[in-house]
Amino acid sequence: MTPAAEVRVDGCRLAYAVDGPEGAPAVLLLNSLGTTMEMWDPQRDAFARAWRVIRCDTRGHGRSDAPPGPYTLDQLGRDALAVLDAAGADRAHVCGISMGGMMAMWLGLHAPGRVGRLVLANTGARVGTAEGWADRMARVRASGMETVADAVLGRFFTEAFRERHPDTTARFRATLAACPPEGYAACCEALRDADLREDVNRIDAATLVVTGTDDAATPPASAEFLRERIPGARLVTLDAAHLSNVERAEAFNAAVLDFLAN
After folding, report:
1. Distance (Å, rounded) from C-alpha 236 to C-alpha 243?
2. Using one digit for the tens of pLDDT, what is the confidence trace for 171-211?
3. Is 92:26 a contact under the CB 8 Å cutoff?
4. What residues contact residue 14 under an 8 Å CB cut-off, 6+ apart?
5. What CATH number does residue 51 fall under?
6. Contact 207, 233 (CB under 8 A)
7. What is the pLDDT of residue 144?
8. Which helix (H) or strand (E) covers residue 98, if one does?
9. Residues 6+ apart with CB under 8 A from 26
10. Helix (H) or strand (E) holding 253
11. What local confidence, expressed as pLDDT, does residue 262 receive?
């Protein structure tokens, strides 16, 4: 595993890692809620053959600090820009899943000069409901991550994948359970308040939207909304649940690498 480096943003320490050839074009990978940069292990080596791959732990997660919330999507987007700066990348393609996809959209809207192409995977211009996020935040803050871990894991992967790959499933569950409750809840607050439905039509970066047939967290309809609203966006549908980059890693890699190269 590549050793993590650090950058500080407003006193918050963010952990990041860089792989791939020096001088190669950069690709920034942004994580789903409740995961760390290791969620991109199925992509790291494949992408790093031709790209400078930048990964990070979102604030509130993993080796990054978890300051008290609430967080905002603006804040998470500025964190991503700080990681690009620290990694020496003036410009990067950006690939994000779920919360990371919303961060990628924010970058496309607020820092278009820093963005090459966008990959918006298993995400939406609006994710979940205010009531749903409020319930999840309350449970996590009151009783810890174990109260939501099994339900979240059930959305991450299809039942068939969980049965076939118990080690991968257990690893993601352990990461969820280890997530600082305040950091997780504060990111839920960012998602509760984030609504880009009226803005995504202003994204002018070439965009690939990826969805999963069995994604209950961000259903295919959310992906279709993005495809319709973002000018020229392409759509790829994979036979997967929420973490399509893990469940269908080979197909995900092929689709993303082809999009970035052409």
Report:
1. 14
2. 999 999 999 999 999 999 999 999 999 999 999 999 999 99
3. yes
4. 6, 7, 8, 56, 57, 59, 64, 65, 79, 82, 83
5. 3.40.50.1820
6. yes
7. 97
8. none
9. 51, 52, 53, 54, 84, 87, 89, 91, 92, 93
10. helix 249-261
11. 80
Domain count, the chain: 1
Helices (H), 121-180: 130-143, 146-156, 159-164, 166-178
Domain that holds residue 132: 5-261
23: region left, alpha or beta (phi > 0 left; psi from -120 to 50 alpha): left
The token duo for 168 is: 């991968």
Contacts of 243 (CB under 8 A, 6+ apart): 32, 35, 39, 97, 122, 156, 157, 172
SS3 assignment, position 30:
strand
User: Do the Cβ atoms of 185 and 212 come closer than 8 Å?
Assistant: no
- Looking at residue 206, its amino acid is A
Decide if 236 contacts 120 (C-beta within 8 A): no
What pLDDT score does 191 carry? 98
Q: pLDDT tens digit string along 72-82?
A: 999 999 999 99
- pLDDT at position 60 over 80: yes
245 vs 212, 236, 240, 241, CA distance in Å?
A: 10, 12, 9, 10
Q: Is the pTM of this model over 0.85?
A: yes
Q: Are 122 and 97 in contact (CB under 8 A)?
A: yes
41 CB contacts (<8 Å, ≥6 apart)?
Answer: none
- Whose tokens are 């860089």? That residue is 18
**Cα angle: 163, vertex 165, 171; to 5 degrees:** 115
